[in-house]
Write a structure and sequence with these properties.
By secondary structure, this protein is of the alpha/beta class. Helix content is 40%, strand content 14%. Strands 1, 2, 3, 4, 5, 6, 7, 8 and 9 form a 9-stranded parallel beta sheet that branches. Helix 9 links the parallel strand 8 and strand 9. Helix 3 runs parallel beside helix 5. The longest helix has 17 residues. 41% of the residues are buried.
Length: 329
């Protein structure tokens, strides 16, 4: 049986959200989906005088893609090499973030206006590493928003050797909209991504943008190679409970929410012993009971004790005792 590539279903890179604690947490629910780091800038890596704390991860998080932000082919290639040495599964270049902070560094979505530079970035990284080099981008930006512009962009980076792309099916409006508005205001254009796959049949293409259910994943996969889930993965991580079975052919029985909490406990205790603040881990767990009975009680329980250093030490075990009582939960 042919192995299903990990990008078949992936969790999108999200700043302030997909840190190593969240990735460990969601890996308790899905073993096979491709995970991404938050975007790490080349400056943060190359100027580090310590042990590249931004790059540290647990082996349990694999397969894991390192997303890099930058616009210098040389710097990106050097960081890609460092990422490969750390053991990442792939290198991903950020050509999709529309925030003002990212634009001020001349990278992210604004790079879609410079397709030749992005092609140079891909080629430089490919020359340095043996692991896949991919690009996450929009279908365009204001001023470069036609399908023809998108085809020209993808054609150049494919010729540069890109191993795959993840396409957010909206343009990015670079002036006047916040990053949040850029995820909702520009209209979704899934058909452009479908057509892109038809025009570039040999290039692995994943689709991203407003995908919130298993049914929607299956529908998109009729037209593209992979689906990338963003906010829904964070707000409702148990959405991934059956992903390994439905998309990767795994036969293992799906975990329960309570089993996820039990499996998180050893990691939680280890991190606390190393000085990690409890809320740095627990904040990522709020969505575990999303949409089911007891969700409010669960969130309230975590919120009540996650900042109390003494009570937070046993907070997960204490919650399991409460959740086992049908009267209280």
């Amino acid at each position: 049986m042919e192995k299903v590539p990990s990008f078949r279903v992936s969790v999108a890179p999200m700043m302030d959200w997909t840190d190593r604690h969240f990735r460990f947490f969601i890996r308790l629910i899905t073993k096979k989906s491709l995970l991404y780091t938050e975007m790490v800038t080349t400056g943060a890596i190359l100027k580090s005088t310590s042990n590249h704390r931004y790059l540290q991860f647990s082996v349990e998080e694999l397969p894991l893609s390192l997303q890099l932000g930058g616009d210098s082919p040389r710097d990106l290639a050097e960081c890609a090499k460092i990422g490969e040495e750390y053991g990442y599964s792939e290198i991903n270049l950020n050509v999709g973030c529309p925030s003002d902070r990212v634009q001020s560094g001349s990278f992210g979505a604004c790079l879609m206006k410079e397709p030749h530079l992005v092609a140079e970035m891909v080629a430089a990284c490919k020359a340095k590493v043996k692991i896949p080099v991919t690009v996450k981008h929009r279908i365009g930006v204001n001023g470069k928003e036609s399908y023809e512009d998108l085809v020209n962009f993808v054609d150049l980076i494919q010729k540069a050797g890109v191993d795959g792309i993840s396409v957010h099916a909206r343009i990015a409006i670079l002036e006047g909209l916040s990053p949040k508005e850029n995820r909702t205001v520009p209209p979704i254009r899934y058909n452009d991504v479908y057509k892109l796959k038809s025009d570039f049949p040999s290039l692995p293409i994943s689709i991203n943008g407003q995908i919130k259910s298993i049914g929607e994943m299956k529908e998109h996969l009729q037209f593209v190679d992979g689906v990338m889930i963003g906010r829904a993965a964070y707000e409702n991580p148990f959405l991934f409970q059956k992903v390994d079975c439905d998309f990767f052919g795994e036969n293992e029985q799906s975990v329960t929410r309570e089993e996820v909490i039990e499996k998180l406990q050893p990691y939680y205790e280890r991190e606390l012993s190393l000085g990690t603040k409890p809320h740095h881990i627990l904040r990522h767990c709020f969505g575990l009971y999303h949409g089911v009975k007891g969700a409010g009680q669960y969130r309230k329980f975590l919120t009540s004790f996650m900042f109390d250093l003494d009570k937070s030490k046993t907070i997960l075990k204490d919650f399991l005792k409460i959740s086992a009582d049908p009267i209280l939960f």
